[in-house]
Design goal:
This protein is of the alpha+beta class and 186 residues long. Helix content is 20%, strand content 30%. A hairpin with an 8-residue loop joins β1 and β2. The longest helix has 19 residues, at 3-21. The radius of gyration is 16 Å and the shape is globular.
Length: 186
Amino acid sequence: MRARHVTCHAAAAITAALALTALAVPAAGAAGSAALARCGENDVTVRAEPSDDNADILRLSVRNDSSKACLVDRVPTVTYGELDGAALPLPMVPHAGRTLAAHDTAYAAVLSVSDSEEAKDKAPAVMYVTVTAVPDHQGSSFQALTLGSPTGVRVWEPVTTLWQSSASQAQRALEKETMGLGTLAV
């Protein structure tokens, strides 16, 4: 990540954690007065895999393994190795809860290098990426080798979509949000 954006990404991650910590969204029941709980760390399975189309894109998913609906953040928190900060959500929206029904899955896409021309010589490579669906969770770490990058995942001004209902919606959202950033060629 660019040094001048590291502070911005760190602030975004802190803001996300604080926003979700204070979150209380009414359940979608008839009464509408009960608050839906955040998903517990052991209630969700987070996955990351390489895209078939672009080495700089990761496909993410979060599955609610519990028998009750719960809340995840509307955007995944994606961090890279020991670098400060997290992938910036596109579109830029306030962090808030997203209801994940029992046994349901949501999908996102992450572009790890958002300016390939400038990043050619400057993008650092990290040996793991950590993804979480709730900012105060520890998350799951994925080794670069399992993400299709044996020499490390390149990272330069990374961006992520919000959680979507399908993998194809996540891909389309990434394409739409990154038009003009110069790197998305799928």
